[in-house]
Design brief:
The protein is an alpha+beta fold and 168 residues long. The chain is 31% helix and 32% strand.
């Protein structure tokens, strides 16, 4: 809109065309806002789908213990001493089997049992001691609560000092 010296208002074509665009809902800024909103909604939906797929895969692929009669062989290595025992159990998971013979103790947390004592030997935190768990010779990738056991498994608890020389 232009104001002339005489006080009359004149509408230029450019302003008139723009006001029509606003009336029709096609103002360029509104279009950009709608496009951004659509992109955000699509991104949120995609993120939800990825999370749902990840959780589904996790719950389908997590190792599951099977109850039934089995024998496991346990070795405890600490302070140049080795203790071995054989456990006959119906437990599905390692913690259940080890609790049956009171072999381990520790601190329960949201992540499961942090084993601090094996066969009566307490790991000394101040000396950076901790119990490393091996299943059939391989470093365990699950905690004692989630580790399924099978007949004939060989379980080793090794008192470990520090974190530098770990055989992951």
């Amino acid at each position: 809109m232009i104001i002339h010296k005489s006080g009359h208002f004149f509408i230029t074509k450019n302003i008139f065309d723009r006001s029509r665009e606003v009336e029709k809902g096609r103002f360029p800024m509104e279009k950009t806002q709608k496009t951004n909103n659509k992109k955000i909604i699509i991104a949120v939906i995609a993120l939800c789908l990825v999370v749902a797929l990840a959780l589904t895969a996790y719950f389908l692929l997590i190792p599951r213990g099977v109850e039934g009669e089995k024998t496991i062989y346990v070795e405890v290595i600490a302070d140049d001493n080795t203790f071995t025992t054989t456990i006959h159990t119906n437990a599905a998971y390692l913690r259940q089997a080890l609790d049956e013979v009171n072999l381990i103790d520790g601190e329960d947390s949201a992540f499961g049992l942090w084993v601090t004592t094996v066969n009566g030997r307490l790991a000394d935190d101040s000396a950076q001691e901790w119990w490393a768990l091996y299943i059939n010779g391989d470093f365990a990738m699950l905690g004692v609560d989630e580790m399924p056991i099978e007949d004939g498994d060989r379980v080793t608890y090794r008192l470990t000092v520090g974190f530098d020389d770990m055989d992951w």
